[in-house]
Amino acid sequence: MMRKLLPHPLFSFTLLIIWLMLVNKVSVGNVLLGAILGVIVPILTAPYWPGRPHIKNHFKAVEYALVVLWDIVLANFHVAAIILFKRNKDIQSKWVCVPLDVTSPEAITILAGTITMTPGTVSSMLSADSSSILVHCLDCEDPDAVRDEIKNRYERRLKEIFP
Amino acid sequence: MFVEFVISFFIVLAGVFGLVGSFGMLKLKDTMQRLHAPTKATTLGVGGVLIASMLYFLLVKGSLSFHELLITIFLFLTAPVSAHFVAKTYIQAKMKPEQLPGSEGEYGWAIYDDPPAYYDND
């Protein structure tokens, strides 16, 4: 019963918070409307999202968000420097294949998003069984180093967050 | 005075990164390289304006505004997804499988290979 009414409790809660941020005012009416949205939207979208992702370690999730935010700031300077100070013929763009250990769709989605937002890499494609991800590097000398960094810095943390 | 200085610092920073991002679109050689400019250099461009806006409303107008946080969240959600779409379309239209590294798994890359059958029942 509970599962039918609230297929994704965390999703419902997020919707409520987002709604309150959107209207920018906390009042009884707004909370009520947000709660109604939080119930209706997950029920309507449940068929597209059958599994229930479990976040094992919330503290790690916050840490991951901070690490990624910091890396995004660094990535901006990194890419800006390449654009401004490197001649086009010195920029070595390469494709890198990163084999994945994480299996949950949510973890893979977050990893792909992280790769795109962080230093010099864009995630371009998954393999058909989503066991590896194709990454495009704007400027790298050593594809193996890029792969190891992604695996050590991001995937290792995601594995601890999603079981 | 100090507050205004900090706010203008963020606005100028945002402007510089926006400019660099747009310049990158012009300068870089091919589509895949150009994709890097808007997904990264512009994040700080938009982010700077949003931080400045939040500080302005918080410190000058005295009201807390959450809209900027929402814009940041939506930006972080949409930028990678659209970049992924552009990249995939580019590969589909302009590249041959030989130009890409192998997938190192049983199955090839998603646009060349069908997913395993068990995905249908999931």
Kindly describe this structure.
The complex is a heterodimer of chains A (163) and B (122). Chain A has helices spanning 2-5, 9-23, 28-45, 58-85, 105-117, 143-161, and strands at residues 94-99, 121-126, 132-137. With 163 residues, chain A is mainly α. Chain A has a three-stranded antiparallel β-sheet. In chain A, a hairpin with a 5-residue loop joins strand 2 (121-126) and strand 3. Chain B is mainly α. Chain B is 69% helix and 0% strand. Chain B has three helices and no strands. The termini of chain B are far apart. The mean pLDDT of chain B is 81. Classes of the chains: A mainly alpha (163), B mainly alpha (122). At the A-B interface, helix 2, helix 4, strand 1, helix 5 and strand 2 of A face helix 1, helix 2 and helix 3 of B.
Give the ordered list of helices and strands of chain B: HHH
Proportion in β-strands of chain A: 5-15%
- On the 0-100 scale, what is the average pLDDT of chain B? 81
The stretches of 5 or more residues of chain B where confidence is low (pLDDT under 50) are none
Largest sheet of chain B: none
* Number of H- or I-type helical stretches of chain B: 3
Instruction: Count the E strands of chain B.
Output: 0
The coarse silhouette of chain A is elongated
Oligomer: heterodimer
Q: What coarse outline of chain B follows from CA principal-axis ratios?
A: elongated
Please tally the β strands of chain A and state the result.
3
β-strand amount of chain B:
under 5%
From the N-terminal CA to the C-terminal CA of chain B, the straight-line distance is: 59 Å
Q: What's the pLDDT, averaged over the residues of chain A?
A: 82
Q: Give the neighbour order of strands across the main sheet of chain A.
A: 1-3-2
- Residue share in helices of chain B? 55-70%
